[in-house]
Amino acid sequence: MKNIGTKLAAVAFLAFVASPAYAGKGGSAAKIKDAIRSGSVDAITAEIERAESLTCSECVQAVTNLLEDDRYAVREVAAWWFAKRPGLKDLVAATMVDDLANGSTIKVRNAADFLGRTVTYTSLPTLRVAINRDNIGPEGKLAMVRAVSYMGHIGGNPVLTTAMADRDAGVRAAAVTAWRDILGQTSAAPVAGLLADADANVRAAAATTVGGMGHVAAAAQLETMVVSDADPVVRRNAAWALGKLGQQSSRIALATASTDNSGLVRMTARAALASLK
Amino acid sequence: MKTYMKTIAIGTALLTAAGAGCGSDDSSGPLGNVDSLIVLQRPARNDMGDIFQYTSYKPKTESGINARLVKLEPPTADGTQTVICCDKAGPEFANVDISGYDISFDAKQIVFSGKLANNQNYGLFLLTLADGSVDQIPTDPARDYVSPIFLPGDKIMFTTNSIVESGARQHRDEYERGTTLQLGRINIDGTGEELGARNLSHRTFPTLMSDGRVMFTQWDHLGGMNAGHLMFVNQDMTNLREAFGKEGTGASNSTLKAQEISPGRFVAIATSRSRTIQAGALVDVRLGISETVDGSVMARERQSEANASYKDLTPDVPHDNMPSADTVGRYYDAYALNAKDKPDLIVSWANGPVESSVLGLAGLSADFGVFLLDTQRNQKHPLINHEEMWDIFPRPLTTRPVPSISGSAIDPTLGGASMIGSMNVYESSLKTFAPGSIYGVRVMEGFSSEEGFPEMFGTTMFEGQANLGVARVQADGSWLAKVPANVPLHVQTVDTFGMSMFSEPVWVSARANEARVCGGCHESRDRPTVIDPGQTDAFAVGATNMYGLTPRANRMSSDTSRDKVMGVGWSNTVQRIFDNNCLGCHDSRNIAGVQPYTITDPVAGTSIQWTFNLEGTPLPATFAEIGGEPAFTASYFSIAGPDMEAIEMGGLMVSGNFKVYASPENARDSILIKMLNPKRQFPTQTNERAFATSPHMAAVGQGGDLTADEFYQLILNIDMGVNFYARENNPGLNVY
Fold this sequence. Notes:
Chain A is 67% helix and 0% strand. Chain A has helices spanning 2-18, 29-38, 41-50, 57-66, 72-83, 86-102, 105-117, 124-130, 138-151, 157-164, 169-179, 189-192, 200-212, 219-228, 232-245, 251-257, 266-274.
């Protein structure tokens, strides 16, 4: 709570100077507070959205508190509300960047979600350092990956490559998925190594990324995966990826996969066969 | 509370059933020739308040019941319910959630959109009814594919957040924050996936018409336009055309989930975009002139928005996002069983306050059940209502005619670009142009924050725009331009001073190699127009090349001269004009003595004062709430003004010498442009002035004069929405 108090102190100054208690049309601080009291994500989301352009110091305090809610959907809509008020956003962002560097897992999580959702590019250098912290749990690292994914800035690549080597499979899978949607991303080479990951979700995500990015060098490994991986989702994604790569060398593997026991795989393999060059 | 709500719902259902029972006989009624219904049952939820929400995933109810497709046979309240999917499809489907489906023309297959696990996306699946087998149709595993419908020729149309443009990110909606959905199609065997051209916001809920076209809901957001309208497109996703909701014809902010009743006639949901759980009133939309043929009412002749009308089938149901009253409720979906003047419908309806905030506060979810609705008597006859599930999208399991295949002329010689144009731009149902007054048509590309911008491009609520050029209008009123395919485009007619005469208030788009030529500038839609661009002067001259094959990343200008300028970033291009010409009188010293204005909060009694200042200095922190992005400058705030939505929503009062010097999309009537009195731009730049008044600099005897290129930069910035940000000053392109 000490941290949220600091943030409130920061925004309170600006809120006081600018507009302490604007009355809105439809939305209100009271409605936001009622929604928060209900605990309902849907009610909170609805009232925050309704208050898109409403400004009042009571709202600022209430929405600031939501930045530390345990539920991502709540933190996300609260950050959006701040993104619509860039002056306030910058004040909060400054304390959030400190949390990235020094905070606990939960504080890092909250900070990363805020900084990502508000597209605070200036936090990228800190994110690149913070992802290497060994005293941060998966929840914090997932949020850092999410932040980079939302920003889509190539300056976040080191965050993703570090996350791809994380102990937690969820972090690795999220980083692999995020890699493809970074603006200006040119190569899937850093992802290819995760085709052999011990976790099926990571392998499935890696297959999608290398296929979606046309990483032909991965074809042989995908051909093995499409016929022998134990997980049908991995086999499906490998088949889809091979279709994207379109290599004639994949024909035998895809023909085998077209009679796969799983309904997830069969048609994907047949369609991939039809797309071979 | 929850128990009470359910009691009310059940009680109402019993009452309506009893009412329908008086003189009603299912065996000979509107469902008399229907053997069975298919119904989608989804675990009840409340996270789909917005009409474009498509990622909600809740596979099981609290008691462990899965999302499923159910057959009701016969289609009566005591009919037998049989689960047809996906309990026998294999362990991969143990946690499937299903969001939508369609029945094939021969009623032997069902295509549905399903999500297998929280870490996966919605994909497409094909259920064969004869054996219950399910095969996944291959789509990009990292993207969502929803709202599938069968098309003739063994194809399936869908909406998806997959991206047609390599290297780009999908547009993001600025309000509900979702990655936007666009149209696509794929062969039923999983080959040949094609993605349609992109709108700047969502396209959703496609439905096939008997004439072969596809109708869907498009969110139109361009400046003041912010609404969901019905649009037509051919099956190959070409020939985009408005259907209903624009030109003041709409029944509500949003019209969605249209289903054809008869040719030219549809039943649809009329509602507001947010908090309505995608549900609302039922409207009977007639696009043309109503006629009765063999007892069926249709509206196939002279279809146009100008001739469109609607009847409110459920007058008590709110069209906005107010909570609906008890016994009134809201409708999620409707399907017509006949084409009577007041048709019989099978509907999905929920009682009580179907509004996400109210339901969320009470810890409830809307309880949609399936009913037979007699719109003549306004009676609902319950068919299915599982208390833990949403019972939605009821459809007769029966064969239906296969419409003809619709497509448009594709011109491979375009090489991947699109060609747009008009036969005669003076033909317009929206604006009367003086003969010879139009110099050309300016085409602009739209984008949103996904390219790396902050949430707001400026205080005027416009999206990002890049000028692609001006195509000269020929003697016969025709024009043609080759433009980038698949991107949102916005057109303006401009005069010889380069100023907008009229802005088409929507985004349009065209596919690669599509020639998208209209009759005019939104010409009358109920008059036959022969579209043959080969007959026009513009065709003889050749289409103006507007970066049709230039990659997105290169569609920005380092040269800001008239024919090269694309984006007009405030902090670089516009500020340079002020720095070079205006600061002698209009810097923070205010030597010109411009009187200030004051913004007051009448509740708190606080106020802030602003004095005209054209410096590029950051806006003071005290203006952050009403002035937007901290990067916005004093000059931007002085010219563009505050965020008027914040002023209005905040109930603030503005007094003193308040002026907004630039009116978005209207340079001609903007104070700044009137004062400066710009020079002629087209066909060549001259010193001829647009207005009879003395140019400001000459009148006050200070400063020099702007160059013709500088005038055009100012005009272009204003006619593209008075944005602060353009690609040329995109913070996302910096190194961090």
